Amino acid sequence: YQMNIVENSRMNDGIYTLPLQFYIEALFGDAANIENAGVTIDDKNWIWSEFAEISKELANKGGHSVSMGNRSPELLLNNLVSDNYAKLLNGRTASFDSAFFIDLLKQVKSLYDDKVIKSDFVDSQKTNFTLSLITSPSDYLLRRSLYYDNGKIYQKPHSADQQSGVSFSVTRELAMNANSTVKGEAWNFMKFLMSEEMQSSFPELTSISINKAVNDKAIKDLVKQGVVSHPKAGKAIEASEENLQPFKEMVSEARLRNYGYNDEHNMLPTIIAEEAKAFFTGQKSAEATAKLIQNRIMIYLNE
To answer: How far apart are CA 275 and CA 2, in angstroms?
Structure first.
């Protein structure tokens, strides 16, 4: 199995859910524009404040004036919250009224105030970077050519306290009820869902599997197919072992789990996004916004 995905889904030193499938989160960059501007990026070590400085440097040296578009400040804030979960959440204790979270709010707002990032639609050809999810080996090949004529994949910026690594988000996961009277049967069922037989039955392009054999077969089948194509990519792309090696490395280096996406099982990003809008639109101060978020999250945790 992809144990890096399981181990890096730990919270408070425990594994509470079993991931079944996942996406890779990557930053696609306009390599030609970045190289022409003479800007060097150490994406293994950069944090969001360095991303902002590099974006300004690119704009000053002939790169695109906007580094990233089509991303709301609320969504970016939840990305940063995910990067700093350990500082903000500990069991049923939250610290969203802390100076640390208030600084996160202000940091995100400054990226939009300085027009480094825009929430409005911006054609990717007019941006330095596009943050996107990779859902399969073929999806990886297509996205390499989809956003930029000469694209390069970078690791997403992380928080100062995080180790370097590729970001990922889990799309399917299971948990066992601690009070179950049939834990043996439940565990056998969970193992069955992780098996090559079951993981192979999920539709193509759904997600990357927790089962290594399934991922290896998907790559072999793609290489045997020879090419992948998509109308938006504009051309057929060679599917070779060499072209797919970076994808394999990204999967094995995935260790930064992103909890910041809204879904029906995680209300925290929804609460943060709803309350943060008032700050990003100038209706409330960072301090007042943080207090509201803290109150709502504490009510939710105590329920």
So the answer is: 36
Distance between alpha carbon 262 and the CA centroid of its chain, in Å?
A: 12
DSSP 114-126: TTSB-SS---GGG
Q: How far apart are CA 85 and CA 216, in angstroms?
A: 32
- What are the DSSP calls for 193-239, one per residue? HHSHHHHTTSPTTS-EESSHHHHHHHHHHHHHH-EE--TTT-S-EE-
Residues of the chain with pLDDT under 50: none
**Model confidence over 230-243: pLDDT tens digits?**
666 567 888 999 99
Task: Write the CB contacts of 193 (distance below 8 Å, at least 6 apart in sequence).
Answer: 20, 174, 199
183: amino acid identity, one letter? K
Report the run of H or E that residue 287 belongs to, with start and end: helix 286-302
- Tokens standing for 108? 């995100």
Residue 288 and residue 102: Cα distance in Å, rounded?
A: 9
With a CB cutoff of 8 Å and minimum separation 6, the contacts of 114 are 52, 56
Mind listing the pLDDT tens digit for each residue in 68-113? 999 999 999 998 898 888 889 887 899 999 999 999 999 999 999 9
Q: What is the CA radius of gyration of the chain?
A: 20
Q: Sketch the domain layout of the chain as residue ranges.
A: 1-71+121-256, 75-116+262-303
**CA-CA distance, 83 to 85, in Å (whole number)?**
6
| Residues ≥6 apart with Cβ < 8 Å to 39 | 54, 57, 58, 61, 63
Q: How many CB atoms lie within 10 A of CB 171?
A: 18
CB 77 within 8 A of CB 272: yes
Handedness of CA 82, 255, 248, 1 (dihedral sign): negative
Between CA 62 and CA 183 the distance in angstroms is 61
Q: At residue 268, what are phi and psi to the nearest 5 degrees?
A: -60, -50
Number of alpha carbons in the 13 Å side-chain half-sphere of residue 168: 32
